[in-house]
Amino acid sequence: MKTMQHPQYHILLENLYRRFPNPKTGLLTTVLENVDLKVSPGEFVVLLGPSGCGKSTLFRICLGADLGYELGVDQEGEGKALINGAPIQLPDTTRGLVPQKYPLYPHLSVLQNVMIGLEFKHSMFHRFTHHKQLKAEAMEYLRMVDLAQHADKMPYQLSGGQQQRVAIAQTLITSPGIVFMDEPFGALDASTRERVQLFMLELWEKQKMTVVFVTHDIAEAVILGSRIVLLSQYYTDDRGDVDNFGKPIQRGSKIVRDIPLSREVLPMKAKGEPAFAAMVRDINEGAGWKPDHRRHVRDFDLTHPNSFSTLTEHEDKTGLGNGNMHKKRTVSV
Amino acid sequence: MLSLVLFIILVAAYLFFSSARNRENPDEKLMPTPTKMFTSFKKVAFEADVKTGKVIFWNDTFVSLRRLFIGATIACTIALMIGMNVALFEGMNALLLNFLRFWNMIPPPVLLPVLFIVFGVEEVSKIVLIVISMAPAMTLAMYTSVSKIAGSQIIRSFTLGASQLEIVYRIVLPQALPHLIEILRTSLGIAWYSLILAEALAASSGIGYRIFLVRRYLAMDVIIPYALWVVVLGYAMNFVLGQILARGFSWHGKQEKS
Cβ contacts (< 8 Å) between A93 and chain B: which residues? Predict the structure, then answer.
């Protein structure tokens, strides 16, 4: 008898491809190529990448907003795309989302915004009879993000940073297994961003929820993440630079680096530390961040314990695979 | 204050020319003096008509406004229901969008004879004309507005556990309503236009009817006050809608505190 597999990983992607038909030529452009990713509960994964690398695409696929992905294009259809052990469903409460802009419902007060997740969960009757409890629970979450005094204000009366904090409370109240954050602090000014980053970090230290955080800001990635996943289209492999017809090979993005970050010192203080700057520099000048810094698939820096890489025989003619997987990192913040 | 200067110049010019013409010719019809206008206005506004027993001016106003109100309500309902559905549901979009655009191209006067034939010359045809003149543009505008609301929020709403029905009625609809009011404000002009047109052609009461009736007697002393009254009504409606927006939907159109 087959017992139900206990979902070990929140996210499990293997041999994931995403291709789009080019509207002009009709040919397929590969945005994500043979992507492999495993995310365990409690990780703060920062999905980093140069612009245009397909972070949003990967993000949307995990969220269930994009069901046009393919599995195992070069592996005879074998591959996996699982959330909590099951194939990816349409967006639901298993995955929370904090977007970059306009996170809140403008016609509801701050408190009502936070409560809405609870209201969606319960029937009208339950909402009516348990109104006080629901309100109290929402206030708890508002207190968690330090905005309880603004409960009856409307979103437009709050600053961008405050709105994002309310959005975080609004997302957490439904207890999603994974919280997806799409450059949530990108629209904020520098000082607000610092404060919200610190707040986010403290929140995560307390709640230890699984977070997938998309950003293109390396410093932000180093501050927040427990794991940096660098997605990039800048790499090389055994297929060379031109295909059989002499045309340059268009490469879809892969996870070029997958590194853990240990953190002994509180990051804000660590910002001044040389180790922090060294890490930022390491990523900035390392493989995959810029077009002229490309590494071979076998040399990808995959040192996180959850990192893995399955390479097709075209990508890796030698069959040796990635030699860096799970090696210990030397630079830590 | 500066904007008043043009008004003052125009009014002064009118007063000058009308008094000159009236001195020359006491039966002057084209440019009546304010006194003459006021006398005529008093007659229609405060004396009961011999035949019907109603005070003409207020009856005209009431009848016209009622037609306008009913027509606008129906047009709003159509714009809201169809606009939202076409924006939110792919199937409705495929079905209706091109038809809406086609409908929007038809000038209302073209349809008027058809309406008179089908609905007769009673209230129905006039109200239908108002609806037809307002609804297509309003519906298309609502479609655009709702598309903008829905796009970013729908996925997030699903992650918060909302059902499709809840998204439509608790998330999208409240945000669509202030848009509807703004769209209504901009459509009032075409509404008046269709109302006056329909009343001019086939009615027995109403502002448009009255204006075109007394045209035959060159009674500018009635026409001008009526025309000014339409402007006043227009301002009043605009103001009322603005107040509804400001008080009931204070959050509309604002993003964040700086």
Answer: 159-161
